[in-house]
Amino acid sequence: MADQHTVDVSALPPVEQGRGALEGLRVLDLATMMAAPWAATYLADYGADVVKAELPGTGDPVRKWGTQYKGVSLAWKTLARNKRLITLAMNKPEGQELVRRLVKDFDVLIENFRPGVMERWGLGPDVLQEINPKLIILRTSGYGQTGPFAERPGFGTLAEGFSGLAYITGADDRPPSIAGYPLADGVAALTGAMAVLAAVYWRDVNGGKGQVIDNAITEATYRLIDYTMLDWEKRGVIRKRSGNRLADLAPRNTYQCSDGHWISISGGTQAIVERMFRVMDRPELITDPRFLDNETRLQNVADLDEVIAEWVGRHPQEEVLRRFEEARVAAAAVHDISQVAEHPHFKARELLQRIDDPELGPTSVTHVHPRLSETPGGVSRLGGVMGQDNESFYLDEVGLSEEEYRKLKDVGAI
Ligand SMILES: CC(C)(COP(=O)(O)OP(=O)(O)OC[C@H]1O[C@@H](n2cnc3c(N)ncnc32)[C@H](O)[C@@H]1OP(=O)(O)O)[C@@H](O)C(=O)NCCC(=O)NCCSC(=O)C(=O)O
């Protein structure tokens, strides 16, 4: 089963390795799992020099995640791409001392321990910024650094529920839904990376002072749906699950074609909806009082969906998409991952490129997204073996003596 993959890796273009806009930015990634280290991955894609530390012997939990191939975590491959990998135990005094030594030479430090843990280790922001006032510290946690829930362990899964997102996601007669991938972690990674860049900009134009960024996964996730708060505040509406429909816009749904394939449609503008009715040979619906405008369509959304589903269900996907495309109706196929790999549009965009990985051999890698015109960045390596850069980092770069290095190894600090 593991060898039955269908991406023809040999046909992919070689991986892009362009200059990155963040070249010279040094990031110490002390974080674990998804949300926080993923922020560092985004920075690394643009050329930041990210050094990622793992607990010696144990390593990052993502290494043990279920998606294993030839004994290697595939999630790790993409999560730790472009990073140098060292080991460093912050729960040992020698490891703590080492962090205090390292931060002198970094611009950004990223951590995601439960609030209070870094302080317990003598590595709180006050200590670190006294050593390096320019240091930008990205702290990612489940609930933020303050408030009654601050010290609770947090996960993206909990954040989807706690933030209000899961409650409005899914079919109205089914339980609240959580995305089939670490959605909240990805969102917190993006807000974290964005805040780091804002702090770097401010530091560089305003006299060089670092900042502490308090990135709560629950709040990053809530921020996605914050206009539903206004709906509650101003109109007293508690938004509920509405399947694929959106309380703001109609039509908006997925529809099954006669060959069993699915498409999604978004009636984002009045013109698109009118063109859709014409393609469906139902021009009279344009003046139907139920469907005159977005407001009336929302009031009659069940009727609207029935009309669209009936028409879509009578034609194969290829025909539906072709006819909608000819009329510039906004519709798209619902793809599984193999269809994403094979789609000519994604191929033309070089979504997947080819990289030679020491553990996996030739492997596809997703290009840097989004690309910058002058400094597109690139991927020089996928996630590798724990501690693979220990010697070059600690001995050649940090300047530890062989003896210091051996002693730290002996006590399990690296
Ligand atoms: C992930 C956590 C629930 C894990 O909780 P805990 O296992 O209780 O760890 P703590 O935060 O208390 O941190 C202390 C422990 O960190 C472990 N640890 C890991 N790496 C290190 C290094 N390099 N050095 C020292 N210690 C380390 C070690 O086992 C420590 O245990 P001791 O030595 O015994 O102290 C929590 O860290 C957390 O809430 N983090 C913030 C939110 C977050 O990032 N969640 C994961 C998002 S990813 C996600 O949701 C998802 O993938 O799904």
Automatic annotation (TrEMBL):
Transmembrane segments: none annotated. Signal peptide: none annotated. GO terms for molecular function: formyl-CoA transferase activity. This is Formyl-CoA transferase. It is an enzyme of class 2 (transferase). Belongs to the CoA-transferase III family. Gene3D superfamilies: Crotonobetainyl-coa:carnitine coa-transferase, domain 1 (3.40.50.10540), formyl-coa transferase, domain 3 (3.30.1540.10). Keywords: Transferase. Its EC number is 2.8.3.16. SUPFAM superfamilies: CoA-transferase family III (CaiB/BaiF) (SSF89796). Pfam families: CoA_transf_3.
